[in-house]
């Protein structure tokens, strides 16, 4: 009986995956992934699209004695400031797949005074300008990049860009397949391509970034995310969009989405159980036993009080 109900439940879930609901999610996830990848590719092509760069590096951060980690400062890295037309050291370096941009801090109190110098290159190599690391005690050491194989990193970065281009083609093909009434075919076979096109580029990109910026060794890392500072500079969204695009491509297929939900749900449940077990220390068990014993004594005292009051009532009745 239980087995029949389980099979019926699985059949209902599978039927929903193959229905219009599953097809709608399939199209939405692939379309969103396509848009995210397009924005990542547009990063650094124009000065106005630097927000979609993959990473940004603060080349000359303001030193603060309260900072517990080392700060990185670039040496002899210059460019042409489009506002002053002079060779200057930029404040930020933006890097993406389609080029790099130097951001010049002409007036840190006014965001409009920031100027941008962008150079198109596809795929743009990952670079780390030579510089120094300074800690809170004022100790300075050089940034060593001799152990970084930039040729190998460039191959990984180039392969990631190729995977992204293929993923965009796959996103469009998935949407076209649904519109052409071939969702059943896509449902049956496209999950294989989803795994192949989402997992490798995510791994390659993260490995390439970690290798290039490993010389920073705990210093301030390249940043990504939304900036709410007055300057609005120094942060970008590209890496976040890239990872979201890979995730959406992976879970666009309803079967993969269900698998991720099951795995994540199981992981959360296991962590919850482990947390409960870890919290259940001998001290907590002892305190729980003490609380239980106190409740038992309170119950015994309550019933003793009830019996004593009943005995007193009997005595009063016997007197009268």
Q: How does the helix and strand content classify structurally?
A: alpha+beta
* Overall morphology: flat
- Main sheet? 4 strands, antiparallel
**Please, how many domains?**
1
The strand count comes to 9
Please report the number of helical segments: 7
The strand line-up of the biggest sheet is: 1-5-6-7
SSE ordering: HHEEEEEEEEEHHHHH
Oligomer: single chain
Mean pLDDT: 76
The radius of gyration over CA amounts to: 31 Å
Beta fraction of the residues? 5-15%
Which stretches are low in confidence, meaning pLDDT under 50 for 5 or more residues running? 1-6, 224-232
Straight-line distance between termini: 68 Å
Helix content: 55-70%
Protein model, in words:
The strands form three sheets. This protein has a four-stranded antiparallel sheet, with no helix packed on it. Helix 3 (150-179) runs antiparallel to helix 4 (183-212). It is built from seven helices and nine strands, in the order H-H-E-E-E-E-E-E-E-E-E-H-H-H-H-H. Helices cover 55% and strands 12% of the residues. By secondary structure, the chain is of the alpha+beta class. Strand 8 (131-134) and strand 9 form a beta hairpin. 30% of the residues are buried. It has one domain. The chain is flat and about 115 Å long. The chain crosses the membrane at residues 21-46, 161-180, 189-212, 257-275. Keywords: Membrane, Transmembrane, Transmembrane helix.
């Amino acid at each position: 009986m239980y087995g029949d109900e389980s099979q019926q439940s699985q059949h209902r879930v599978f039927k929903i995956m193959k229905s219009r609901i599953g097809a709608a999610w399939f199209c939405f996830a692939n379309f969103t992934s396509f848009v995210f990848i397009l924005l990542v590719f547009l990063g650094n092509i124009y000065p106005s699209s630097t927000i979609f760069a993959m990473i940004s590096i603060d080349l000359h951060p303001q030193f603060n004695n309260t900072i517990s980690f080392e700060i990185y400062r670039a040496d002899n890295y210059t460019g042409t400031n489009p506002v002053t037309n002079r060779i200057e050291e930029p404040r930020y370096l933006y890097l993406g797949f389609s080029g790099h941009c130097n951001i010049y801090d002409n007036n840190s109190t006014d965001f409009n005074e920031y100027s941008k110098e962008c150079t198109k290159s596809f795929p743009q190599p990952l670079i780390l300008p030579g510089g120094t690391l300074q800690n809170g005690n004022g100790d300075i050491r050089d940034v060593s990049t001799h152990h970084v194989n930039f040729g190998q990193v460039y191959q990984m970065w180039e392969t990631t860009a190729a995977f992204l281009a293929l993923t965009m083609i796959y996103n469009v093909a998935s949407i076209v397949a649904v519109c052409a009434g071939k969702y059943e075919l896509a449902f049956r076979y496209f999950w294989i391509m989803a795994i192949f096109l989402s997992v490798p580029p995510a791994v390659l990109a993260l490995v390439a970034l970690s290798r290039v910026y490993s010389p920073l060794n705990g210093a301030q890392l390249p940043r990504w995310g939304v900036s709410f500072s007055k300057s609005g500079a120094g942060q970008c969204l590209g890496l976040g969009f890239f990872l979201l695009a890979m995730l959406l491509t992976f879970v666009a297929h309803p079967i993969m989405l269900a698998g991720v939900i099951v795995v994540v749900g199981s992981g959360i449940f296991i962590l919850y159980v482990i947390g409960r077990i870890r919290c259940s220390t001998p001290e907590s068990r002892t305190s729980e036993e003490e609380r239980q014993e106190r409740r038992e004594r309170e119950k015994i005292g309550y019933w003793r009080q009830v019996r004593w009051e009943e005995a007193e009532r009997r005595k009063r009745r016997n007197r009268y």
